[in-house]
Design goal:
This protein is of the alpha+beta class. The chain folds into 3 domains: about 110 residues, SCP2 sterol-binding domain (Nonspecific Lipid-transfer Protein, Chain A, 2-Layer Sandwich); about 240 residues, Sandwich (Jelly Rolls), CATH 2.60.120; about 55 residues, no CATH class. Helices cover about 35% and strands about 20% of the residues. The protein is globular.
Length: about 450
């Protein structure tokens, strides 16, 4: 991180940190705690500094005040390790390499300050799209026009600095969740969840691996995903996540479209994409795979039947390591790895006006006990009860124009909250057996 003083924290001395960089940070990021703290730094580069967070602006000066709330003592080497993110104050305290005298509760309040100080700057949309300007993307491509960005080593370096994404082995070594696996030859039919150890074995046998919600396991990646979501000005109810796909040569996914917008980054290897516009349904609220079951929501949205294969007017894009493809929702696409492929998607669902306004309207209506009443009789087979339910609903609907007029949309939008996603229970034994059952019918290389 570089502060306004212009010197990276990783190369700080105690003097430059306490007299230049910390004051510069506190000038733009006020601290939530109040108190006077003396830092007694031992070693050749050490000294004493007072950090007074009880005044505005905060005061940082050389020397020790006579009335500190607490005194924090550590070596200059340990302070340097904290600023480099090689260690943290709390761990050093428990290892008795940081000593605190005075108010321990106030000293603990400094931990979030140091965590924020030493965190790297969160990458944003500009970093993801480099060298393509984010402003040009938002003006010309978002949300409905695809974009291909050539390979950029800066993008790869940043991604590899926030998560172990250099190769599939590195990710599997750090992975603590389950992995979806797709058997060779049936990439869209079966996707059991297995352990990382089982996934490594299946990958060696030609299975495609999909790592769901990778950002939840790597906080810096999650922060980047959320920052891009904010740059895109998506509603608060948007479900954003990062997905990793490890695909053997010749494998891929059959023709389909998604209800999500995707930024696909090629991490290693190469992948060929066949892409086509969708003239059967505009702004779909559900995805569809050719040959798969039609989502009931799509039926009233369709203007014509879906094609039987990837449309003839498709175009092809080949991504190599470091390249990026922005694929809007609804675009037909089919993928094939032409070299052992590892790719990462920043995936965002696309809440439509019906979603957002219905959510906002509900949050308003449930403030009235009449709208919270049980919708009794709506499922009744008795005509009298059904008629009474219809009359009650009709009476409420007559009040709806007045309720709509009373809506403060700005406040309602500001109060929208992300949708809580339920995680489907996973049976590893069942899914492992299900995955293995496909091996007997899969011809192995050289067989």
């Amino acid at each position: 991180m570089t502060l306004s003083a212009g010197r990276p924290l990783a190369h700080s001395t105690p003097h430059t940190f306490f007299t230049e960089q910390l004051p510069a940070y506190l000038a733009v990021q006020p601290c939530d705690i109040a108190g006077k703290f003396v830092f007694d730094i031992r070693g050749e580069a050490g000294g004493c500094w007072t950090v007074d967070l009880s005044c505005t602006p905060a005061l940082c000066q050389h020397g020790a005040t006579d009335d500190p709330d607490c005194v924090i003592s550590l070596s200059d080497q340990d302070l340097a390790a904290v600023l480099r993110r090689d260690d943290d104050l709390e761990e050093l305290f428990y290892r008795q390499r940081v000593q605190v005298s005075g108010d321990l509760q106030k000293a603990a309040g400094l931990l979030p300050l140091f965590a924020a100080l030493t965190s790297p700057p969160v990458p944003r949309l500009e970093t993801l799209l480099t060298p393509y300007p984010a402003a040009a993307f938002l003006e010309r491509h978002w949300p409905g026009r695809h974009l291909v960005v050539p390979p950029a080593q800066a993008r790869l370096r940043t991604l590899q600095s926030v998560a172990p994404l250099s190769n599939v082995s590195a990710l599997l070594e750090h992975w603590r969740g389950t992995v979806r696996v797709f058997p060779p030859g049936e990439p869209d039919q079966v996707s059991p969840h297995v352990s990382a150890q089982a996934a490594a074995e299946l990958y060696s046998r030609g299975f495609t691996l999909v790592f769901d919600s990778v950002d939840l396991y790597f906080p810096d990646l999650h922060a980047w995903m959320k920052a891009v979501q904010n740059d895109l000005a998506l509603p608060a109810t948007t479900w954003g996540r990062c997905m990793v796909y490890a695909t053997p040569v010749g494998s891929g996914f059959n023709t389909h479209f998604d209800e999500n917008a995707n930024f696909a980054i090629q991490l290693a290897g190469s992948k060929r994409w066949k892409i086509a516009l969708n003239d059967a349904v505009a702004e779909p609220t559900a995805g569809h795979r050719l040959g798969g079951n039609l989502h009931p929501e799509l039926l009233p949205q369709m203007e014509r039947p879906f094609p039987e294969r990837v449309p003839d007017d498709h175009f092809e894009v080949t991504l190599h390591a470091g390249g990026l493809l922005f694929l809007p929702r609804g675009h037909w696409h089919q993928t094939t790895a032409i070299a052992e492929s590892l790719s990462l998607n920043f995936t965002y669902d696309q809440p439509c006006w019906a979603d957002v306004l219905a959510t906002a309207l509900r949050s308003h209506l449930i403030g009235d006990v009449r709208w919270r009443a049980l919708a009794s009789g709506t499922g009744a087979s008795d005509p009298a009860r059904a008629a009474a339910a219809a009359a009650e609903a009709g009476a409420l609907l007559k009040q709806l124009p007045d309720e709509l007029a009373a809506l403060d949309l700005a406040t309602l939008f500001a109060n929208l909250r992300p949708t809580v996603r339920n995680v489907e229970p996973i049976d590893l034994k069942r899914d492992w057996v299900q995955a293995l059952s496909h091996l007997s019918s899969v011809k192995q290389p050289g067989a």
